[in-house]
Amino acid sequence: MRQNAPFLAALAVALSSCGQPASGRRLVVHEFATSAEGWQVAGDTGLATPAFESVGGRSSGFISHLDEALGETWYFQAPATVLQKLSAAEGGLIEYTLKQSSADAGFSEDDLVIVGVAGRLSYRFDYAPGMDWTDFSVPLSASANWRWNWNARATAEQIRSVISQPSRLEIRGEYRTGDDIGAMDRFVLMAK
Question: How many domains does the chain have?
């Protein structure tokens, strides 16, 4: 029985941590293998369903949208399954992969937007997606230079207040003026 003591102790520790968020654990993964998985397109001329392609992503499918060139900048809008897990990702990461139909970097705009009851968070990367799949990753923390209501740098408390009751998470899909196609290959929301 003593020979099994270290094993039993390790098993007890493992079992006692069940149900607790693991460090770096994936909370939500969308790889678009069989569908658009509830994602929408917002901001062009209204809500639209993105096109689903079963092949052409890095490992399987992807979603895309052809700019209607009539409205404002359009975004991929996350489904409720992402919003429900957002507060558990505080201090974790938001990762996604994009590509566009043109090498033109286009115009400056918020790349990632989270809107909640308490306000609006936005983040801008210092690069745009290319014509090949481009990875994006940002910590969901104040150290990452999120902006609060279009102005000042967001504090940890402001980030927490927005992600505790989010109503939208949007990823920019349009990077140039005129006709273009934006595509997203995957989305991952990770805990700290």
Answer: 1
